[in-house]
């Protein structure tokens, strides 16, 4: 008997979805930083065993959109409700259950198994956690609730085992040697964007898009040319920094991470250009891959 299915991960920003995805996969596949709205796309990660294939899907955090990009990000999350065999709804001990009632109402009426994961229990106490479990049970009465800590890997294995039990019988959807649906270039852009999220403040990381213009690979080396697009000339100056110091730091740290990720020597060149108001431009968002197929 072989099982296979789509396990989609949804939830609000900053509850640790991407960290959880990486733990479940055993691979660093999703960006995980301390800042909200880290994930912009729907990212698949595939686990294969002799008798099962789990297709995990990490989605952008659910939030009320303030501009066109956030509308497309929300569409990725809503789409995850439509093709899930098992849904993981991730929250934490800080978040209020009524933060996104409209989205939660959609989850409530799903006909597939829902596992509600309450993350960050390492910063809570037993009584508070018990109250939170009761509250969430009232919100999603059909969901199975798992208190977890992605940070210390508590109860994550039990979640994975339960997912395997819930998968439907099916042949695999992807080849046994495939571990994601994304091309190599995608992970280059995500790693560069991760460094920007880590090293710049305020609005700058959210006004940035990264595009790989060249990716040449041989047995030992990869030569990459990438462009960081911003919305304003002033943002371009901040990204580059005084005498180029800030951009050099991003390039250096991204190159180190890319070498670990690909297991090869990386030659990385990064340029900065202005694409005015790209986050609110439908055509530009389509060009950057933010429209659902």
List keywords for this structure.
293 residues; alpha/beta; Rossmann fold; GMP Synthetase, Chain A, domain 3; 2 domains; 6-stranded mixed β-sheet; 3-stranded mixed β-sheet; 9 helices
Name the CATH superfamily assignment of the largest domain: P-loop containing nucleotide triphosphate hydrolases
List the total number of helices: 9
Distance between the termini: 33 Å
Task: Output the CATH class name of the largest domain.
Answer: Alpha Beta
Return the CATH topology of the largest domain.
Rossmann fold
Helix content: 25-40%
Strand line-up of the largest beta sheet: 2-3-1-4-5-6
- E-strand count: 9
Strand content: 15-25%
Domains counted in the coordinates: how many?
2
**Spatial shape:** globular
Average pLDDT, rounded to a whole number, is 86
Structural class assignment? alpha/beta
Radius of gyration in whole Å, from Cα? 20 Å
